[in-house]
From TrEMBL:
It comes from Aegilops tauschii subsp. strangulata (Goatgrass). It is an enzyme of class 3 (hydrolase). This is DNA replication licensing factor MCM4. It is found in: Nucleus. SMART domains: MCM (SM00350). GO terms for cellular component: MCM complex; THO complex. Belongs to the MCM family. Component of the minichromosome maintenance (MCM) complex, a heterotetramer composed of MCM2, MCM3, MCM4, MCM5, MCM6 and MCM7. Component of the MCM2-7 complex.
């Protein structure tokens, strides 16, 4: 608000005597967010640019950190004072966007919350409702197919040859289990964590990139390029007020999504120790610079690593090859070993598959595969509306399986060679069976899904 310099009354005419009466003012919500370019639109050799966006009233908190948005607004310039007490302004102006409307984009990703579209009329809503019911009927028909597991597996990353077991595990991660909150206040996570360990050239990073593009609010980081602070949260100064504020890291930004960590074995021990709390309690606790806070990090961790000697050594045990602490290994629900064994028949089929990606080969048999939009809609609907419960037979089968796993790990001589099962593994089995039931749109976990 520009203050008048001189009082308008004839009797007064005093200069610079006006003060602002705060009690009579009308206040509005204001928020400054930073908008960053998406990685797909960065020019060659360029770094992503950021621009400040000013939000007012209803638009405040419309978008969350990590969302992909489309913003309509007015590009404005603002003068900057040399000092807080001086009225002289600099010759360089600060630019920002005055936001008028925000819309969440990127339909290829899973959407757990509804997108913020405020300008829908009633007529368009009714037509959309009819379209949505048709879509839901089609999805329910798909779920009744006997080969729905195999069809979903083939639809996930179809350009990657075979690895069907790994793809089934990744599908379970996308569907997820039920997060359980007990009346006593105890929480059980529903997110599934997966570790892929394998030889170089077994398309681990390709799977990670595909999951990053598909998952809601996915963040992709590399082990060597990540620090402990960059994964959790760090303290920074607010340029407007000068106060210390918390800036979210990768794990907090991928809340309700999947955090993909490549080169997990090359990560520093300090950064890896930050994952212990996130992978089980699903929170990030911070006590820095007078800020004591606990942030939500309800994320599924998908990590991939190479064995300790870069290639898998068959002479060593699995634990010596993976070379990660048992405290971290027990937090992963699924651990996959992907080995590159030389075999003439499989090598020939793999080579034919890779070559067929570059030109159309009439000999390659096309399997029935769901397109990306159908797969995304199928997973989103299942996560939102299907909440399966364990049946009595399934509960008994789970108990039997867990006891058998414990016996296998307690055999003399096997303790050093086998990753022993802990109480966390029975929770993992429950989560995986719930995810398999969600794939069938079933409200009950049956014994056959154990």
């Amino acid at each position: 608000v520009t203050e008048p310099h001189i009082c308008q009354k004839e009797q007064c005419k005093a200069s610079n005597s006006m003060t602002l009466v705060h009690n009579r003012c009308r206040f509005a919500d204001k928020q400054i967010i930073k908008l960053q370019e998406t990685p797909d639109e960065i020019p060659e050799g360029g770094t992503p640019h950021t621009v400040s966006v000013l939000m007012h009233d209803k638009l405040v908190d419309a978008g969350k950190p990590g969302d992909r948005v489309e913003i309509t607004g007015i590009y404005r310039a603002m003068s900057i004072r040399i000092g807080p007490s001086q009225r002289t302004v600099k010759s360089i102006f600060k630019t920002y966007i005055d936001c008028l409307h925000i819309k969440k984009t990127d339909k290829s990703r899973l959407h757990i919350e509804d997108s913020m579209d405020t300008d829908n009329t009633n007529a368009s809503k009714s037509s959309e409702d009819g379209h949505v019911t048709d879509k839901i009927d089609k999805l329910k028909e798909l779920s009744k197919l006997p080969d729905i597991y195999d069809r979903l597996t083939r639809s996930l990353a179809p350009n990657i040859w075979e690895l069907d077991d790994v793809k089934r595990g990744l599908l379970c991660q996308l569907f997820g289990g039920n997060a359980l909150r007990l009346p006593s206040g105890a929480n059980f996570r529903g997110d599934i964590n997966i570790l892929l360990v394998g030889d170089p050239g077994t398309s681990k990073s390709q799977l990670l990139q595909y999951m990053h593009k598909l998952s809601p609010r996915g963040i992709y980081t590399s082990g060597r390029g990540s620090s402990a602070v960059g994964l959790t949260a760090y303290v920074a100064k607010d340029p407007e007020t000068g106060e210390t504020v918390l800036e979210s890291g990768a794990l907090v930004l991928s809340d309700k999504g999947v955090c993909c960590i490549d080169e997990f074995d090359k990560m520093s021990d300090n950064a890896r120790s930050m994952l212990h709390e996130v992978m089980e309690q699903q929170t990030v606790s911070i006590a820095k610079a007078g800020i004591i806070a606990s942030l939500n990090a309800r994320t599924s961790v998908l990590a991939c690593a190479n064995p300790s000697e870069s290639r898998y050594n068959p002479r060593l045990s699995v634990i010596d090859n993976i070379h990660l602490p048992p405290t971290l290994l027990s937090r992963f629900d699924l651990i996959y070993l992907i080995l590159d064994k030389a075999d003439e028949q499989t090598d020939r089929r793999l080579a034919k598959h890779i070559v067929s990606l570059h030109f159309e080969n009439p000999e390659v048999v096309e399997h029935q595969v769901l397109d990306l939009s159908t797969l995304v809609a199928y997973i989103s609907y299942s996560r939102k509306y299907i909440h399966p419960k364990l049946s009595d037979e399934a509960a008994e089968e789970l108990t039997r399986g867990y006891v058998a796993m414990r016996q296998r790990g307690n055999n003399p001589g096997s303790r050093k060679k086998v990753i022993t099962a802990t109480a966390r593994q029975i929770e993992s089995l429950i989560r995986l069976s719930e995810a398999l039931a969600r794939m069938r749109f079933s409200e009950v976990v049956l014994e056959c899904e154990m």
